[in-house]
Amino acid sequence: MVTGALGLVGAAAVRRLTAMGLEVVGIDNDMRRTFFGDAASNAATHDALKQCKGFRLVEADIRDTDGITKVFRRHLGAVQAVIHAAAQPSHDWAATDPTTDFAINATATLALLEACREHTPDARFLCVSTNKVYGDHPNHLPLAEGATRMDLDPSHPFHDRGIDESMSIDQTRHSLFGVSKTAADLMVQEYGDRFGLATSVFRAGCITGEDHHGAKAHGFLSYLCRVAREGGTYEVIGHDGKQVRDNLHADDLADAFARVIAAPPSSGVYNIGGGRKASCSILEALDIASEILARPVSRTFTKAPRYGDHIWWISDTSRFQNTYPGWSPSHTAKDLITRLLADV
Questions:
Q1: Per-residue pLDDT tens for 254-300?
Q2: Residue 315 backbone phi and psi in degrees, to 5
Q3: CA distance between the termini of the chain
Q4: Who contacts 132 (Cβ-Cβ below 8 Å, separation ≥6)?
Q5: C-alpha span between 6 and 24 (Å, rounded)
Q6: Rounded to the nearest 10 degrees, how much is the dihedral formed by the CA atoms of 113, 115, 117, 121?
Q7: How far is CA 337 from the centre of its chain?
Q8: CB proximity list for 76: less than 8 A, separation 6 or greater
Q9: What does the pLDDT look like over 92-128, one tens digit per residue?
């Protein structure tokens, strides 16, 4: 069962799992159109996923507890795994409607956990969380400004591999989105500890891919490449464009899900991302796009940063890789930008 099945991560999971011969029930209602407008809609993805043998879509809202419970009852005892990829994903949108944001990200997650515990307790529950559970703690690391990016002091233990799960999630500015996702993250962990569900939490940073319908408020690399492709002007918001993100292709995240499902049941919390080789600042992403397109990408600069914006984030995936050997991110930042620019 995959929630948010028409989204970037959900669709990648559907393709990966059906390729393994599994039947997949997807749940989605294209709320992305409501969040970010028609250009961000995932409706067309349904047509593409119809080619996946064993996939069936249930058009439902994850806030509809009765409707979701009916889906679980219909497949009583047959669900091997629940991949919870549905979410309201934007800091900016969350501030416009905190009640809806919390209902989607936190309350609906609780309802899914309850349905899983009652109707299919042996299923693995995999939740797509976010690095925003750490709030703005990363901004207080010893950072130095370079010509095109901020970077961490080379002597710091996070420098080479990135930030690991030891970073505190407390006493920090999360943003409303960060709060709702942290509530969900902790609830998933609690259902693993208290009720024995096999739960996995993936604290992802920037996930991307050719299927990403990026918008200004969410999906930085996809949106940047779309603006560049179309000859538009990209607005760089805050930190002079030197804020750094590592980027992970959605297919690599789907491969991580598949490895968890194929292994003996266990629980864990994992930072997941593309690592240093897939990291770039906004300036660097614009420069790479300009190089590939052989023309400058126009940009403007807004001084004030987004609320709670990370200045530097690279994910240390050591915990996941130690638990599931053989997994590793498959793309550099330039690889990803090249693929996104080719997505005409």
A1: 999 999 999 999 999 999 999 999 999 999 999 999 999 999 999 99
A2: -85, 130
A3: 31
A4: 91, 174, 175, 177, 178, 181, 182, 308, 310
A5: 12
A6: -110
A7: 17
A8: 119, 120
A9: 899 999 999 999 999 999 999 999 999 999 999 999 9
